[in-house]
Amino acid sequence: MGLFRARTEPTTPLDGIDAVFADLDGVVYAGAGAIPHAVESLNRTKAERAVGYITNNASRSDASVAGHLADLGLEVVPHDVVTSPQAAMRLLEERVDPGALVFVVGGEGIVTELEKRGFRVTRSAEDAPDAVVQGFAPEVGWRELAEASFALNAHGGPDAATAGIPWIATNMDWTIPVARGIAPGNGTLVSAVHTAVGRFPVVAGKPETPIFDEAKRRFGADRPLVVGDRLDTDILGANRAGMASAVVLTGIDRAKQVLAADAASRPDFILRDLRGLHEPYPVVEAVRGGGVRVNDARVRIDGRTVVIVSAGDGGLDLLRAACAAIWQSGTAIHALDVPPSLYA
Questions:
Q1: Mean pLDDT, to the nearest integer, of 145-171?
Q2: 85-203 in CATH: which number?
Q3: pTM, two decimal places
Q4: Cys bridge to 127: 27, 122, 295, 305, which one at CB 3.0-4.6 A?
């Protein structure tokens, strides 16, 4: 992880990076409004390298998303938006014939991508669809989930794990951030269908790799940086795809979650907001006598106790030092005595 790279002087998270793949909810916007400093930071980034927007949200088309981003002031076209339905199309094409009939749970984002590729769309299990593609839309309810279950069970055999037509989920996010707070995401809806059909879908979106592979192909990137607000989707997915990652503390996951990140979900960089992309990232160094130092912040582990030797700025540098110390200790955070100030 980049947090532990050996360096003698600070560099920015963008050094050596040829593309930035940014999540949307919690990174660029919350609800309809832009997150402070996001627009100017991303426009500055695009002046020097490719910027792609990767979203698990399947309810809107790439053109619709690009329109929203442009309204916020971003320099963006639909080609810059990589959606989970687009990644799902590659998975679908591997499993069904051209022009196949596909049952859709979800909205515009999925239907648009299916029609672009010549697939036919149905909302009825009675039409005997060849596959099911499921994504989030605010209007999805019991009737749609039940109809999907009927379609998936229609040709079931004795082996529930392999029976029936292909089922592709755009993503498995358990929650989504909206203007009023945190709401259930597509993962909860997929789980309802899973309960009825007894098997799991193939997943296109984060943290699975198809959406990252789609972005890398589209932008021809060799060394991209993934920027996200969620450890369990953005950062885990970037690590699985072999990409550098930065968590930004403007969305779902904050200090408490980052401190507790498991080995698979640890970011290379921890940023307060997207201005951090262009700011020198401080060196994280081991200190003689034990502990980790980031600028004037120093943290060490004494037995099962996390000790703040020096708070430094009392903010981001302290969090970075504490993360490095805890992660290097090999001890799960639930087994440690952690000062409450680190969660602030």
A1: 82
A2: 3.40.50.1000
A3: 0.90
A4: 122
